[in-house]
């Protein structure tokens, strides 16, 4: 019987020599064979709890923190209105996406390293009636002293100086014409689709003698390996996923109509929520490491 089968975490723990050498051989102490000893991994207080590597490679006991990536700067949320052609002064026709803004883009919470473990700014968008939100959601927004809003998103920043709860973010003050932005949204859902539409597969001959027109065909080998490889491109649900289009240029900001025109296409259909943030350029506004 392997020793791991009779030595769970509350009975066995790794010694310091095991942590340093990363060679789990015979340097294990077990309660079954020795006097009762407090487990150092379980006896620490919450404030002293930290990462401790107890096996080779990447197995860890303790807290696991999943960190999201930094943004190049604070961003806003908007609503996709559609696409159109924009004529520049020199006559060049540019396909643009028109993005509008409903009531919102108000800071609802400031998260700091001391209280939450990371620095971020939470922004709310699109005002709704009170009955559209739950009581915990209403309580969170009332604590910040802001109006009820449907969407809440965070922007993780390297510095949160200059931001305060209840502050309204104005697009013209953050961006200007010619800036590059990253636009995130949910793509249009296509439902269950075949391999041709979903993965751009080629079809077979459509003549009478062909027995394979739009069918997928073989999906793997024979007895070896006797299974279908993971990640095989096959028919399935298409669209309806989050996508980010990077480094799109702001062509026009219209303050009268409260819209912004962004060159190119962005995810989703008209009416969808969009997240607009400064484009990430490594070495310019994002550190290399």
Automatic annotation (TrEMBL):
Belongs to the universal ribosomal protein uL3 family. GO terms for biological process: translation. SUPFAM superfamilies: Translation proteins (SSF50447). Keywords: Ribonucleoprotein, Ribosomal protein, RNA-binding, rRNA-binding. PANTHER family: 50S RIBOSOMAL PROTEIN L3, LARGE RIBOSOMAL SUBUNIT PROTEIN UL3C. The lineage of its organism: Eukaryota, Viridiplantae, Streptophyta, Embryophyta, Tracheophyta. Residues 229-241 have a biased composition (Basic residues). Pfam families: Ribosomal_L3 (PF00297). HAMAP family: Ribosomal_uL3_B. This is Large ribosomal subunit protein uL3c. Residues 201-241 are annotated as: Disordered. InterPro entries: Ribosomal_uL3, Ribosomal_uL3_bac/org-type, Ribosomal_uL3_CS, Transl_B-barrel_sf. GO terms for molecular function: rRNA binding; structural constituent of ribosome. The keyword rRNA-binding applies. GO terms for cellular component: chloroplast envelope; ribonucleoprotein complex; ribosome.
């Amino acid at each position: 019987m392997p020793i791991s089968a009779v030595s769970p975490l509350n009975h066995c723990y790794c010694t310091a020599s095991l942590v340093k050498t990363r060679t789990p051989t015979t340097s294990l102490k077990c309660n079954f064979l020795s006097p009762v000893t407090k487990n150092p991994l379980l006896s620490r207080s919450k404030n002293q709890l930290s990462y401790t590597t107890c096996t080779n490679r990447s197995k860890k006991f303790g807290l696991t923190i999943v960190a999201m990536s930094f943004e190049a700067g604070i961003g806003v949320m908007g609503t996709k209105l559609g696409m159109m052609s924009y004529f520049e002064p020199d006559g060049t026709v540019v396909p643009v996406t028109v993005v509008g803004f409903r009531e919102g883009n108000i800071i609802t919470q400031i998260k700091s390293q001391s209280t939450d473990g990371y620095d971020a700014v939470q922004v709310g968008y699109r005002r709704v009636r009170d009955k559209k939100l739950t009581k915990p959601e209403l309580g969170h927004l009332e604590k910040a002293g802001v109006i009820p809003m449907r969407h809440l998103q965070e922007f993780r920043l390297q510095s949160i100086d200059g931001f305060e709860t209840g502050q309204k973010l104005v697009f013209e003050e953050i961006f200007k014409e010619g800036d590059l932005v990253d636009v995130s949204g949910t793509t249009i859902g296509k439902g269950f689709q075949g391999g041709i539409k979903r993965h751009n597969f080629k079809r077979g001959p459509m003549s009478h003698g062909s027995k394979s027109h739009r069918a997928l065909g073989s999906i793997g080998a024979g007895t070896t390996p006797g299974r279908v490889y993971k990640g095989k491109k096959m028919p399935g649900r298409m669209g309806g996923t989050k996508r980010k289009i990077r480094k799109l240029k702001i062509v026009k900001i219209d303050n009268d109509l409260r819209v912004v025109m962004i060159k190119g296409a962005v995810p989703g259909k008209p009416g969808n929520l969009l997240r607009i943030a400064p484009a990430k350029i490594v070495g310019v506004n994002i550190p290399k490491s």
